[in-house]
Amino acid sequence: MAFLYPYFLFALAAVAVPIILHLVQLRRAKRIAFSNVKFIQVSKDLTASQRNLKELLILFCRILFIVFLVLAFAQPFIPASDAAVTVNDANLDIFVDNSYSMQRMHSEEDLTMLEVASDQAKTVLDLFPASTAFKLSSTSRLNHGAPLQKSEAISILDQLAYSAKPFAPSLGESIQASHLFIFSDFQKSSLKLEDFKSKDASMQVHLIPVSAAAASNITIDSVYLEDEFLRTDAESRIHVLVTNTSNDLAEDVPVKLFMQGQQVSALSLDLPPRQSTEAVMSFRATGEAISLAYVQVEDYPVEFDNTFYFTLSSSAAIAVTEVSDNTASLQQLYAGESFFKYSSYTNDNIDYAKLAASNIVIVNGVKALSAALAANLSNYAKEGGTLLIIPPVGSDRGAYTSLFQNLNMPVRFTGAGAGGAKTNLMAPDPNNPFFRSIFSDFDAKMQMPTASRSLSWSRASEDILRFRGGSPFLSRFDRGTGAVYLMAAPLDETYSSLPNHALFVPVMYRLAIESYQQQQQLAYTLNNNIVQVPAATKQQREGVYQLQQDTLAFIPEQQVRGGKLYFTVPPEMEKAGFYTLQLNDSILTTLAFNYDKGESYLEQYTPDELRTVIGSESGNIHVYDYGDAFSIKGEFEKRYFGVKLWKYCLILCLFFLMAEIALIRFFRT
């Protein structure tokens, strides 16, 4: 302990005054009145003991009154434990985490964690003079980082709302601050502790964890269509992935599907702890160009992730282009269905523009494959198209070798003839997504087609059908942004019995449907870096694209290339829901945006875990225990300002003065 004004300690000599008065008072004779001689000695002893105790207590109070009065003027204090670190009043930063995970209730108060964090931040403001300028920041930029006076900072803290952005304190902007205070729940799913360790050691970082009452939450992670090809007025199914992040079983959780504002499906789920459960919901697509849909669950108090928005649009017809020596050999297969747009060409009569615009190109048994066609097919696949290659009858390789080389596919011709031995195919794997919804009742012992191999290969991206023995019959090769499917035998009865088998039609339909790609995703997240959608037509191309929700309009960073619009989600977009993409006054499409799901996983670091992960080598990072605003203020003052004791001395001084008065008035002898 030290004293700010130690010279006042000489005044402790005044303690001698009450001692001298006490001794003088003992020498004075006292008259004792009594009523009966019988009680003289007893009355004398009793009165003397009471009087001596009272006088000693009064003396004690007077001495301590003078001692603490002198100490109050001397202003004692306990020196700061980090006295070497100066506190620059002109360079302080306070970061308050206002992400959606702070919706939870505090463990000890009937307030949200954001309200408690704001109250604790106000206490930090009280540590410094009223003239101090603070920098106040959060997950969303506040006041553009301009310095604030105490009253302005308090006003902003009172009005602080939740932000869709995850917890990521911008320490780069605070590098010049001498002290940075961070109030957060410190989620394990989003916190990057290396950000704290990599900063200048001269900046003192104070981590103040806010304790949550519970870490339970139910969130909708994602949705996807069972079949991307969506038919109008046909029953479709959507898969909803629901996650229970708590350690307790959640029973009978209602899940509801809405389309165009109307509920179309509902079910209840039992969600095991810390697991994801997939719900399958049926619906019928309407004739609307784009249907606005969302899935909703009921959960409290973290409600931001209870709704997942997405858009549905009926699929356009799938463009199937066949290149074959026999014109329209697959026409009967595809032309009979309205959702296929079939066209066919021979090797020497091809519209390459229409070929490039096709969803799938089927090269069916072309014997003399030209070099020009091979080059175009290679580029088509690498640029996102789907290519199916069915080998020709005979051993004429044409330009197949160069096509396979350009696609980097390890394929060779076996030289098998029409009379070669045929091998049975293995039953398909019913769990393979390629065969979903094909089998109503799967029989592993079904009679499979036979075929003789004209082509052989290895190292495919996926083998869809295999011969008995394991050799591939139908495989997929991922090349560039597209896919190449390769069949081992021609569609000729002398080579394969597949064309006459019940499996032929569903496999060929699935290959065409797999080639279909939605022009836009069902949904996007608000922190997506880049969003890609089809650009406007040439007649509408001039102008600036913007996203609009109700009366709010946002102009993103944008670029148009290759018929695609690429834009970055504006940081100011913080509300989930539906946004229309507009060019000038024309509405091009509607996009659905959802909150980032990282905030839904609420498990947080405890103060001890933070200290363990940070380590003792980071001397400039200080982790505070859970507590109220008063304890945090006291710990900071003790560390950097020291503990001022003069207030306590003054309180004790007044206490002993009141004690003396009480003894004189109420302690009667």
TrEMBL record:
Domain Aerotolerance regulator N-terminal, residue spans: 1-76
Keyword S-adenosyl-L-methionine found: no
Annotated transmembrane regions: 6-24, 56-78, 645-667
Lineage top rank: taxon: Bacteria
Pfam families found in the cross-reference section: BatA
Membrane among keywords: yes
NCBIfam families tied to this protein: two_anch
Matches recorded under InterPro entries: Aerotolerance_reg_N, Class_I_gatase-like, Double_TM_dom
Keywords from the UniProt entry: Membrane, Transmembrane, Transmembrane helix
Organism listed in the record: Pontibacter rugosus
Protein name listed in UniProt: BatA domain-containing protein
